[in-house]
Amino acid sequence: MEAYEAYMKQVAEPMRRELTGNGFTELTTDDEVESFMNSAEGVSLVVVNSVCGCAAGLARPAVVGAIEELEKKPDHLVTVFAGQDREATEKMRSYFEGVQPSSPSIAILDGSELKYFIPREQIEDHDLEQVQEHLAGALRQMIG
User: Fold this and answer.
1) Which residues are catalytic?
2) C-alpha closest to that of 66 among 18, 138, 116
3) How far apart are CA 73 and CA 124, in angstroms?
4) Residue 108 predicted with pLDDT over 90
5) 82: which of 27, 54, 121, 127 lies 20 to 30 Å off by Cα?
6) What is the pLDDT of residue 9?
7) Cα–Cα distance measured from residue 110 to residue 58, given in angstroms and rounded to the nearest whole number
8) CA 12 remoteness from chain centre
9) What crossing angle do the helices spanning 53-69 and 2-20 adopt, rounded to 10°?
10) pTM here?
C-alpha cells in the first residue's frame, strides 16, 4: 500500500502544479480548510482536483482559461485534491450543503456559502471551451 500511495503522489504532482502554478492555494489538511473557510471573505473559487480520467484533464485547463479571460478575478483561488488529501477534501465538501460528492468539481463560494457548483457530470463529455465558458459565465455573475 505504501508503494501505491507513493506512486499516486508522484502521478498527482503535475496535476497539483497545474493549479498551484496558476495562482491556486492548495489546502491539504482539514485544519487548513477550516481555517480558510472561517476567514474567507468575498468570492472564492474552489476546485476539487482529481486524477480521474478525461473530466479532470478538462477541468484544470478550463478553470485556468476561465480565470485568464475574466477582467475581475475571484478574491480567492483554492484547491483540494480528492483521493490524495482525503481529510481536506471531506472537510471542504462539508461546506457544499445538499451537493453529492463529485470529483473533479468546481464550486463558487461567497464567504463560506456555496453559490454555484459544477459537478463532474457537467465537465465530462463536454469540450474544453464549453466548460471554460460555463465557469466564466458563472463567475461573471458573481463578481461582475
Assistant:
1) 52, 54
2) 138
3) 25
4) yes
5) 127
6) 83
7) 25
8) 14
9) 20
10) 0.94
